[in-house]
Amino acid sequence: MKKMPKWADVLLIPAINLSLAFLISGLVIWAIGKDPWVAIKTMVQGSFGDSRGLGYTLYYTTNFIFTGLAVAVASHARLFNIGGEGQATVGGLGVALVCLAVPWPHWTLALPAAILGGALFGAAWAAIPAYLQAKRGSHIVITTIMFNFIAAALLGYLLVNVLKEPGNMAAETRSFPPGAHLPTFHEMLAPFGIDFNKNAPANISFLVALLCLIGFYVLIWKTRLGYAIRAFGQSESAAVYAGISPVKITIIAMLISGGLAGLMAINNVMGEAERLILNSVEGAGFIGIAVALMGRNHPVGVFLAALLFGFLYQGGAELALWESIPRELIVVIQGLVILLTGALDNMVRAPLEKLFLSFGKGEA
Amino acid sequence: MDFLTIIQILDSTVRLATPLLLACLAGLFSERSGVFDIGLEGKMLAAAFLSAAVAAVTGNAWLGLCAGIFASVLMALLHGLASITFRGDQLISGVAINFLAAGLTVVIGQSWFALGGRTPSLIGGGRFPDITLPFADALAEVPVIGQIYSELISGHSILVYVAMAAVPLTWWVLYRTRFGLRLRAVGENPGAVDTAGISVVRLRYTAVIICGVLCGIAGSYLSTGLAAGFVKDMTAGRGFIALAALIFAKWRPWQALGACLLFGLLEAIGNRYQNIDILGATLPVQFMQALPYMLTVVILPGFVGKAIPPRAGGEAYVKER
Fold it and tell me: Which residues cross the membrane (chain A) (predicted)?
């Protein structure tokens, strides 16, 4: 046996990494004088205990599926897209413009248009860093970081100076027309006799996110383009030898990535706020990094990781409410997950690999 | 715009450029050794918090500075552990450090002071006082030169002068010492350095620790010099502007000073004037905020002089067997 069995790579290592992250988080909670056990009970109760909590959990999950897939697509081409935050911000602008431009008669017409608007704007925001990486070799990480800040400034300017309703003090657009209202879980499940909480923001975007997960799987593993993206990510020189253009793949992978991040806006802008406000992305773009790392850039993994972070986000809000533990605890957990599954991966992997190899020798 | 206004703007330029400059030089040491660092922001934030917390409790800014450096070096060592020892992805490690700092400073701050993540306002010895240089008061009446001396050069906190002194010092270390030669070499070709019998791991750890110390001073200056206490997310992207300045300066110390002063000037102008009219066009304040980032995007791909990073940057060194 030359390497670890697959189950250890796919299940065991993430499980150990995650346990370590939670263990350290538990220590942090204990160190600030709170009971970790009470904290975890509060979080589970608040995020899965009733349909209101569940609705919030799935709402956050939807955001993280989009941003997680965005990071994952780029990762397959070995590009680190850290600009999901900015792409989702600009995607929100696209969705808002689509929703405000036309007095939509029904959501079935508004949603496809908004999907197009969000994806196009998000992809456009990724296009410049992609072009600069592909053609001029400037590092995609640096340019996408810079574009996050530029996006924030751009949106701030547009909301305050262009899009704001005259007379409105807050920097936000007017509310979208009623025809652009997306069905919430409450409205979707009522015909089936299921009474889902009315105020929970989970909406039909969740189903769009699930479709994107399937589409992602098909794209990456079942199409010629997906093969080219993976081949380029594995070895650029081999890809060139096989006739794959690095410039083309870099730009296409980043456009898909930016489009997915921009798509998030149908959930947070169109589904929840129903108007464009400042800082509506709330860090979801960055959580996509943790989600993709934990989910090993695979749709099943991304879904599970997004659900986990949805739970952490909703549970974290409940913690702040009931246990007066600041919401920033979730940021700590997020940092630990990124550190352990991403940067410190070898810390767990190397000893484990040695262990499995020595077992293998014993059998042989 | 009269002369005094210009002096005042330049004065605040120097104040605002100081944390950028320290963080930029910090990044310079790290990246010249081949360790990319996008965690400058997080290290500054951690230092800003702990220095303000310790200064608030002890009433001593110097103890605060030590604590700030300690916090920052701790984060730097974590980055070193991940990216040098365990050969993890340096960029991911930097991202993780930014989140850890953003979260921990508020969680711990709330637990210690219960002020919503802030530290108590610093008074008296908890802050670094402004230093009046000799004869500054006497020369204040002398036109131009006297005004420049007393308003612009004199009257800053000690850490501002430390930052300014760090520029020639960095230049000297980098280009005139054996350590500096090895540091530059290890960022370009670690294999060659290893062949010469010098430990790549030790050199890179040294660079990462120096980076931590400088980020620590930068963060402490933010909370105990520029402001009087820590507030949540008070670095506000300065770590990334420092990174932008580093690229702008093409990883060289004197140019780093120029870039940081430029970005400090942009911030100072943005703080003083909300909207600026130039040749009939109005520049909104958001444009000024985004300008450092836009300049970086333009400079990086070589539209205006190409910025080439150290060749071995971002890659862990694997010793050949």
Answer: 12-33, 53-74, 86-104, 110-128, 140-160, 200-220, 240-264, 276-293, 300-317, 329-348
